[in-house]
Every structure is written in C-alpha cells, then in structure tokens.
Amino acid sequence: MNTTTVSAAPVLHAGQTIRRADRRLGVFMLAPALLYITLLVALPFLLALFLSLTNSSAGSLEFSFVGLQNFKNVVASPVFRRALRNTFVFTFVSQAAVMVLGNVLARALMRPFFGKTLARFVILMPWAAPISLATLGWLWIFDSTFSVINWLLKVVGWLGPGQWYYWLGDTTLGMVAIITIHVWRMLPFSTVILLAGLTSIPNEVREASAIDGAGTLARIFQIEIPMMRPILTVAVLFGVVFTFTDMSVVYLLTRGGPYNSTHVLASLAFQDGVLGGDVGRGAAVAIFLVPVLVVLAIVMLRSSRRAEVV
User: Which pTM was predicted?
Assistant: First the structure.
C-alpha cells in the first residue's frame, strides 16, 4: 500500500501574528524619532567630523584635507586648554550645587506649608523663562557699577571703602557669575526630578527606618539616596550633557571674556568656527566634546542599570 507524504504548510498561530503586528507597530512608532536623530544629530556630527579634517572656511567652497592638523593646532593653543579646564569646572561645580540645592528644595516641597503651590510656581520660573531675557537681568545684577550684589555687600559691611567686585571683568569672578546663572537655570529641573524620586519611596520604608532608630542623615544617605539612585543618575546625566554642550550663558554674559578666560568648549567652537570663520578649527574644538560625553554616558547608564538590578 503506497503512502504519500503531504507536507503541511506552516501555520501561523495567533500569538505569532500579534507579535509581528507589534513589531511593525514598534518600528512605525520609532521611525519619527529615528529620522529626527538622523537628520539633527547623526548627519551634523558626521559633517563636523568631515570639516575638522579640512581647512574649510566660512564664505568659501574651496577646501583641502589637512588630516589631524586642526586637532594639533587646537591642543597647542592655551585658549583651548583654558576652555577645556573651564568646561570641567563649569560642569561639575554647577551640577554638584544643583544636586545639593535640588535635594534641599525637593525635601522642603514635600512638607505641607502655606503657599506651597505658589512656591512651586516660583521655583519653576527660571526653567520656563527664556535664557536670553533672564541673562539680561543677570547682566544688571553683575554690572560693574550698578551691581545689586555689590551694594548689598557694602551695606552689610563686607566691602570696605574703595573695595568693589568687577564680576564680569575678572577671570575668577566671571566664572563664578556664569556658574551662578547656570545653577539658577538648572535648579528647577533637578528639583522636579528629585521630588518625583522622593515621593516614589513608600512611606512604610520611612516608618520602618524610624522604628529602627535611624536618624535623619542615616535615613537620607543609607535609605533614600540608594533607592533614588536610578533617578539621580538620569538627572546627573542630563545635567552633565546639557552643561557640557551649552554655550548660551557664556556667550550672552561674557562672550568668553575677559581675554578669552571664561570660554568653554562650546563657546570657543562657536567663536572660532562661526565668528572667526575658521570652520575646520571650530569643528575640531567641537569634536573634543564627543568622547567625554560618550564615556560619561556609558559610566552613568551602567551604574543606573546595576542599581535597578539590585
């Protein structure tokens, strides 16, 4: 008796069909974000990398490849080394201040008090205000003649006869002014993130720590901060990336002065590549930001992932 073998066509189960539909929907939903990243991040980065290897200048379509010569010239420049040091000081000092003050404000906002809604609105105002308009106000605050800070210090006796702070005319005071404005600008964002992290901690954890006899500092550093570690990592990572690549405060307040002493890498790249017309040199300065940010992002994301697993 002959037997015929019939090969059955593969049958798709309902679960496989749903998974394929979900996969197509996921690709469709991610497409706009991927297109945005490609057009506004990937392509400009590749163009900057290309320009950093040329002697291209503004207003001319002629250029030739110079290899790593732009990077050699940049590294040999004392202005670049000063801007690189200022970038690290500007970033880490401002972020340390933002995280400390954000913790204080977030813990204060968790407590009930009269006018809490108004306080939240006032705290969020610096984040919502246009930085250009805000910096104009800070220019008056740090003005060499009409500085309200100087007059206040003179009233309380801090400044004696003939003493006066020229905030934007001194190299050290200029960096202090820039960091102050940036902390004021970034503090609301950090406060909101930290407040969300604090409110996500169950009250049972705090009550259990109080029963066990944990004091305020022990509860903060041994219980709350470790539980908020993933949220803290996101806040720090965003703040570091934003600060490393930001030039608005420096450019609007001091334009890198006096004597190029308050430049950060972003403002120096703008000055050399756009204002100075040396596009290749400006692109080389900007490229120096990339490896630092990549390393910081990898370290912080790995730290956050380990915290989530634990």
Answer: 0.81
